[in-house]
Amino acid sequence: MKTDISTRCIHLKQTNKHAKHFGAISYPIYQTATYAHPGVGQTTGYDYSRLQNPTREQLEKIVASLEDGVDALAFSSGMAAIATLMEIFEPGDHLIIDSDLYGGSIRLFDNISRKNGITFSAVDCCQENIVSYIKDETKAIYIETPTNPMMNITDIEALSKIAKQHALLLVVDNTFLSPYFQNPLNLGADIVIHSGTKYLGGHNDTLAGFLITSSHKMSEKLRFFIKTTGAGLSPFDSWLIMRGIKTLAIRMEKAQENTLKIVDWLLLQKSVSKVIYPGIATHPGHQVMKKQSRGFGAIITFLVNDKTFAQEVLENIKIIQFAESLGGVETLMTYPITQTHADLSPKLLEKNGITEKVLRLSVGIEAADDLIADLQAAFIKAEEKLYERKKY
Ligand SMILES: *Cc1c(COP(=O)(O)O)cnc(C)c1O
Q1: Is the same domain home to 108 and 238?
Q2: Is 100 in the pocket of ligand 1 (CB under 6 A)?
């Protein structure tokens, strides 16, 4: 019987589990770089921790189970995972990427992948006709849904049909929703990416990344790259992410519950010109998300009327921290234009609508009323500042 995802966050189905580790409930940290061989030509199954480590392997099995994948590989960061993924491509290959992606992914594609001979077409995957961008050299479509930070929604199943028709890989960075709310492999994607730094770890204390695959062949390819290039997650950090995952379900539920309350509050503010959250019924991706996800997540992007107002809010929030990142128990506010998306070209910033008036909130699990009171106080300060400026 397949258990619910909340249970799978805590229990990995294991054979003969009591024989191992003296029945330890918390999986041990195998802090070892290498392993003694029982004899010549013999192995315990582990030879060197760059290849594999029991703690990392346990975490990988848990993440594979959460995403319904054949295999998962744990990396030292989300970017390490994406950089390793790019090794499957050859010079001359072409990728179709969503134009609104995590800024670090765009930086990698623009500065490193291009240098290695890979070309890209950045396409608004939820609006434009993808097929018209497919060339003979096209090998993959790479998306995020919801996108970062504009929260555009792509229909994964529909896109996977196009990908299959043209023999392309469909890669989905599923960081924003976590496996708790969305499982792209079940919708036809071939590879799922996670920055484990975000919801999986959940405590803003550890960097990690994952690639989850739907085929053994792809997994073997990627295992060769992790062994060769060495970006695997350390045993201790693997353990921290495993501990984080145990509370994934309850954190996601609480963060989303808080988000709905904050969205309602933001919608009433006269200094807020737009609230972008796919849980709002008028959001263009609302219906698609209802079909493909189990929740709308806990990230809100909102636009304010004035640049000074945005900056004053950032300077006056007290419980909410002004910091880059998302997905942790702490509520964080990000200024995409100077933080996550600082390396984007002015043209792409404009195309995506990332201006000085755009703020992003990653809602944590504090009391919603305290978060709203914090926002309220910061908004009042920001309004005073604007008023003063107009007076003189
Ligand atoms: C943070 C993030 C990454 C990069 O992950 P790191 O762990 O910071 O290297 C990739 N994709 C998305 C959507 C992210 O939010």
Answers
A1: yes
A2: no
Domain co-membership, 309 together with 380: yes
Domain stop point among 245, 275, 297: 245
Pocket of ligand 1 contains residue 207 by CB under 6 Å: yes
166 and 277 fall within a common domain: no
Domain that includes residue 189, residue range = 5-245
Reported pTM: 0.95
- CB contact at 8 A, 145 and 114: no
What is the set of active-site residues? 50, 102, 173, 198
For ligand 1, the distance from its centroid to the CA atom of residue 42, given in whole angstroms, is 39
Decide whether any atom of ligand 1 lies within 6 Å of the 362 Cβ. no
- Opening angle at CA 100, ends 329 and 242, nearest 5: 30
If asked whether residues 240 and 256 sit together in one domain, one would say no
**Residues 152 and 285 grouped into a single domain:** no
- Report the alpha-carbon distance of residue 109 to residue 349 in Å, rounded: 16
Residue by residue, pLDDT tens for the chain (392 residues) are: 789 999 999 999 765 555 678 889 999 999 999 999 999 999 999 999 999 999 999 999 999 999 999 999 999 999 999 999 999 999 999 999 999 899 899 999 999 999 999 999 999 988 889 999 999 999 999 999 999 889 999 999 999 999 999 999 999 999 999 999 999 999 999 999 999 999 999 999 999 999 999 999 999 999 999 999 999 999 999 999 999 999 999 999 999 999 999 999 999 999 999 999 999 999 999 999 999 999 999 999 999 999 999 999 999 999 999 999 999 999 999 999 888 788 888 888 888 889 999 999 999 999 999 999 999 999 999 999 988 887 76
> Is the domain of 296 the same as that of 232?
no
Looking only at the bridges linking them, the beta strands covering 94-98 and 191-195 are: unpaired
Q: The CATH number of the domain where 341 resides is what?
A: 3.90.1150.10
What is the C-alpha to C-alpha distance for residues 265 and 261, in angstroms, rounded to an integer? 6
State the total domains in the chain: 2
Distance of CA 385 to the CA centre of its chain: 35
72-108 core/surface letters (b: 16 or more CB in 10 A; e: else): bbbbbbbbbbbbbbbbbbeeebbbbbbbbbbbbbbeb
